[in-house]
TrEMBL record:
PANTHER family: ABC TRANSPORTER ATP-BINDING PROTEIN, HIGH-AFFINITY BRANCHED-CHAIN AMINO ACID TRANSPORT ATP-BINDING PROTEIN LIVF. Residues 7-240 form the ABC transporter domain. One of its GO terms (biological process) is L-amino acid transport. Gene3D superfamilies: P-loop containing nucleotide triphosphate hydrolases. Belongs to the ABC transporter superfamily. PROSITE patterns: ABC_TRANSPORTER_1, ABC_TRANSPORTER_2. This is ABC transporter ATP-binding protein. The keyword Metal-binding does not apply. It comes from the Bacteria. InterPro entries: AAA+_ATPase, ABC_transporter-like_ATP-bd, ABC_transporter-like_CS, BCAA_Transport_ATP-bd_LivF, P-loop_NTPase. One of its GO terms (molecular function) is branched-chain amino acid transmembrane transporter activity. Keywords: Amino-acid transport, ATP-binding, Cell membrane, Membrane, Nucleotide-binding, Transport.
Amino acid sequence: MSDHNLLTLQGVHTHIGAYHILHGVDLAVPRGQLTMLLGRNGAGKTTTLRTIMGLWRASQGRITFNGQDITGLPTPQIADLGIAYVPENMGIFSDLTVKENMLLAARQARSAGQMNEERLAWIFKLFPAVEKFWSHPAGKLSGGQKQMLAVSRAIVEPRELLIVDEPSKGLAPAIINNMIDAFAQLKASGVTILLVEQNINFAKRLGDGVAVMDNGVVVHAGTMKALAEDEALQQSLLGLAL
């Protein structure tokens, strides 16, 4: 395996109970790039993310991160290697304040005072709402603000790979632009990113590489630019026009 790819999946199968969801997924996430994982609903995108994180076990195949086989590792160990995962439901604790949510994610810190100030300042620049609502209960935030908090929690400690499931879902266009900007800045800071997305405009503006899933396998992989310029291909892969 070349060092060029930070994460690779080779022939990954996943069964959930009696259901065979992933049927041999091959996926490469190049270091320092933003890779988009697209596909219709039910294509297996979320299952792929959960399998990478060890939340569901691959029944066959191999997952390699940074040269290490992580296929059988428990989720906390996978996270410790430098992978952050923001699931679609965001996993925010509604009753806790924004600050307490951040503190829970900062495993090195026992109090807000121990959190890395430089890093916090950088996060506040990316997502001003996180600073603005610092002492408010997270449950009071809007959908877009919760999404920003979820990403902020994922990056409160340095991570090599950020995996986010549908960051633009249900968000207003202005917030989506803010998100796009934040992901671009994260990528510029050296973070490798894998995003599952339904919003094609979002994908088009951010993606370096793209993989399209259908029925539990990757049916197309290439550059986002090439897919964005080929309407017939979009139509056949996604059933939609960009």
